[in-house]
Structures are given as C-alpha cells and as structure tokens.
C-alpha cells in the first residue's frame, strides 16, 4: 500500500485485486483444456515450471520497485535470501 496514490489508495488497490482475479480466472480456465490435450501429469508439470519461471520477473520487479516504497529499508532486505 505504500506505492499507491495518496489521493485514491482504495482505487489502486481495487485495480490490483481486479487484475489478480482476472489472471486467476484465465489460469484456471486454461488448465483443463491443457490437461485434456497433454494429460494431467504433463499439464501440471508445465504449470509448475511456468510458475517457477515467472518468479524471476517477479523478483526483478520487486527489486526495481523497492526504492519507491517509503519505509526506508534497503532494497535487498525485502527480498528473499535466494537472490
């Protein structure tokens, strides 16, 4: 919430929640056709690998956004120890 607008913090949070909900619906609706075509074990392996790959841009984005946060912590303190 430290990165949201001072004038409308609730609106920023609402957009964030709506975007997350849309992504969840798209992911949930895509898994069944994928599982039907590729088989369940391969489909869930592919989803797991995609999630693992998406961690890289997530950590990179968190590192770039950390200086914008107003809690005055070091950008490396807020990231997991694996980086």
Kindly describe this structure.
By secondary structure, this protein is an all-alpha fold. The model has no long low-confidence stretch (mean pLDDT 77). The chain is elongated, with a radius of gyration of 17 Å. It has two helices and no strands. Helix 1 (9-38) packs antiparallel against helix 2. Keywords: Membrane, Transmembrane, Transmembrane helix. This is Siderophore transporter, RhtX/FptX family. The chain crosses the membrane at residues 42-62.
Summarize this, please?
By secondary structure, this protein is mainly alpha-helical. Helix content is 67%, strand content 0%. It has helices at residues 9-38, 40-65.
List the helices and strands and how they pair.
Blueprint: H1 9-38, H2 40-65
Transmembrane segments: 42-62
Protein name: Siderophore transporter, RhtX/FptX family
Keywords: Membrane, Transmembrane, Transmembrane helix
Label this structure with key terms.
transmembrane helix; transmembrane; Siderophore transporter, RhtX/FptX family; 83 residues; membrane; mainly alpha; MFS_trans_sf
């Amino acid at each position: 919430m430290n990165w949201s607008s001072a004038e409308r913090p609730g609106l920023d949070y609402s957009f964030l929640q709506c975007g997350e909900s849309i992504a969840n619906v798209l992911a949930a609706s895509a898994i069944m056709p994928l599982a039907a075509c590729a088989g369940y074990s391969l489909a869930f392996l592919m989803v797991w690998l995609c999630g693992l790959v998406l961690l890289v841009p997530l950590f990179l984005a968190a590192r770039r956004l950390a200086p914008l946060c107003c809690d005055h912590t070091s950008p490396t303190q807020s990231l997991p120890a694996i980086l």
